[in-house]
Structures are given as structure tokens and as C-alpha cells.
Design brief:
Enolase-like, domain 1; 472 residues; FAD/NAD(P)-binding domain; 23 strands; alpha/beta; seven-stranded mixed sheet; 14 helices; five-stranded antiparallel sheet; 3 domains
Length: 472
Amino acid sequence: MSLIKCDVCVIGAGSGGLSVAAGAAQMGAKVVLIEKGEMGGDCLNSGCVPSKAMLAAAKQAHALTKGAKLGIAPAEPEIDFAAVKDHVARTIAAIAPVDSQERYEGFGVTVIREHARFTSPDEMQAGDTTIRARRFVLATGSRPLVPPIEGIGEVPFLTNESIFDLREKPRHLLVVGGGPIGIEMAQAHRRLGCEVTVIEGAKALGKDDPELAGELLSMLRDEGIRIEEEAQVTSVSGEAGAITVETSKGRFEGSHLLLAVGREVVTDGLGLDVAHVKHDGKGITVGDDLRSVSNRKVYAVGDAAGGLMFTHVAGYHAGVIIRSILFGLPSKAKTAHLPWATYTDPGLAQVGLTEAQAREVHGDALKVIRAGFDENDRAIAEGRTEGMLKLMAVKGRPVGATILGAEAGNLIGVWAIAIASGTKLSKIAGAVLPYPTLGEINKRAAGNYFSASLFDNEWVKKTVRTVQRWVP
């Protein structure tokens, strides 16, 4: 048995944990990082990275069928499903060195590849090593939720942790869950030649703006994806290659079953009670400073903190607690400026308040401005005119934005920055952007906020006519 004393002990080598470990070590703190699984966590190995690699292959296949309007004869793609998975594996392998144990040891971090558990409020055990730290950071992430559906224990099923290892193309993929993960995987598999049925117990993409989410779902249905909403799953049965899902709206049959009904925070086996760390089913109970309310030596970031479950949120949390842990300065996590995106094609992205939320908060002070992709010259040139930007604004400042359209995940960044910094719409409307770009849709939306008051205002017109008579 050995003892290590350190300033910061980080549990979990996903986005949040790696960011804390690298930042703290490079600024002079003595850091221990404990990870029992793969470096890089869910995002690199079974989440963001492999899903986007698979979506890229699906987008390429789909493009071959949609060239007619650009003068290119459509062609039926020849899809090698196993080769697509090779592309996914190569993508993970190319990024893996950035998250590797060797890289973090190069920063001066002591990396221990064992399971960690508290043995006291200020000590952890990892294998044969005891770690005594001034501060602990729980960055343990989450795992796919497997709901207690009748028969689920007897039926083979996939989750995001196993679907990317599947090398034989599913004949008919049944997706239980209509959130971002389920919808992304549905489109990817449909474009790669599979039949796909999405089964959602409530509303698909229910956390997004209903208007634009509805438009996206309509587009996906047009691609041949069957999406059944308000269909509560009651039981599953069958065997590999022949799965049956019974729901409140009838029976669905397919060859493979993907569960994408949500995620649960990983807190089991950590000895949280021994360390007097308060927690519940949502994660570690923390304050706005991401510090445990019951053990001031413990912080939680990312999924473990019980809030929005996104990789970029974990990275943001890391920056918040670094300020507190290393410099003793007050620092609080906020949520109003945190964006998210569903990386379908077209994509759907959100930051701040949706229209319904903004109306509830701001009432008549709210202005909702729309700018269509069919008004954007670059979108027209590329034949990508589907979609819209909805901007929620109050007193000349954005309070929310929803984008459905090409590159939505990239375009939402402007509004994330604007909301975080309190930027006025006049600044965005006055920006000079290269022409023609999709980014001009953001400028147009901001400009549309002022259009009515400038172009339909009789006082403005009268003033202009007066000035024109008198100014030489």
C-alpha cells in the first residue's frame, strides 16, 4: 500500500475531469487523476465522437441521392457498413492521443487506472494506493439508462456504448427514445440503408422548440424514418434478429433494438456516504459553485453535477472550479448561455430561452424575430434553404435563439456568446461578414429586430424627408 498526498484528486477522465487535471497541473498544483475505464470517457469512446463520425458517413451517402437539383444525376450509394465502422474507429483513434494517459503524465499528472472510492471525507482508495487530497473533483459522467421494461433482461439490446461496435448493418433498427441520441442514430442508420422506427413515449425532441422540432421531425419522416410519439413501451420480446416492442399504440417489429431513453449519473461504488457527500438520483448535490453542500472538500462537474448532460458543459464546469480551487476566488456556474445541438442534417440548435419559455418570463416585452434560410444567398446557392432562425429578444438584447438548418450547431455559437456577454443586437446587426456565408443569417435576424421601427415608422420617414430638403 502506498500513500499519495496531493492538492487535487480528480475522479473520471472524461471532458470535465481531463480539463481540471490539465489546467490544475499546468498551473502548479499537484494532481492525481483516477480512471477505471478508457481515457476520454463517454464522449470520445461511445458518444460525441463516434456518433458524429457515423453521421458524416451517412451524410455522404445521402448526398449521392440528392444531386438532381444541382444538375448532378442521383446515384444509389454502395454502402459498406463495416467500412463505415472502420471510419468511426479511425476517428476515435486519431483523437485518442489528446486524451491519453501519456499526455497527461507529461503535464505532471499522476494517473491511476483503478476504481476509486472514498474511505474517509478526505481520502480515497484506488487499487493499492491511498490518495489524501485537499480537494476532490467528481467527474464520473453518466451511462445509458436501461428502464425496467418487461422482458428487457431476456432480449438483446444496444445502447450508445455498444452500437458503434456493430459491424453488420441492421435490417430494421427499433429506437426506443426520441431525444437527440435516438434521433441522430435514427437518421444515420436510415441514410446507411436500414429501416428505422423511433418509438417515443412523449414528444420526440421534447426539450426543443416545438415549432422547429416539428419541422425537423417532418423532414426525417420524409426520409423514410417512422417516428411514433406518445407510444409508451410496455414490454419487449424476441431474440437476435427478431425483436418485438409492445407499446400503448401497438406492436413494432424489427431486427435490432437501441435504447436511447436517457442517462443516469454514475455515483455507485464511490463511497459517497463514507465521505459525507450528499447525493440523489440526479447526481451530487452541489451549490452554484459546484461544491458539495455537505463536504466542502468535494466538487462535481459535468453529468455528476446533476445538470445539463453535455460534453461542453463539463468543460465549462472545469473552468468554473479551477478559479475556485487554485486561486480561492468566488466562481459560480450559470446556465442561461449554455447551448446544445442535435446533429441531424439539417441540425437543430438552441441557446437560452425557447419562444414558450421567453413568453412566460418576459410577456409582452418579448419580440420574436424570424429569418429563413431561404433568404440566405449561400443557402440558396447550395440548395440548402430548409430551416429557420428564431430569435427571442427583449429591449434590444437576445434572450434565446433556436436554429433549424444547415450548420445549426456552428451558427448557434454567435448567440451563445451574445447571451453570455450581454451583447446588444445592434452590434451583431452592424457586423461586417464575408459574403456569401451562412453566418449572415445571424446578422439578418439581428437586423430584422430593427426593421419595423426603421422602415415602417412614419416619424422616421418624416425626419428623413425633412433632412433631405435642408441638407445640401
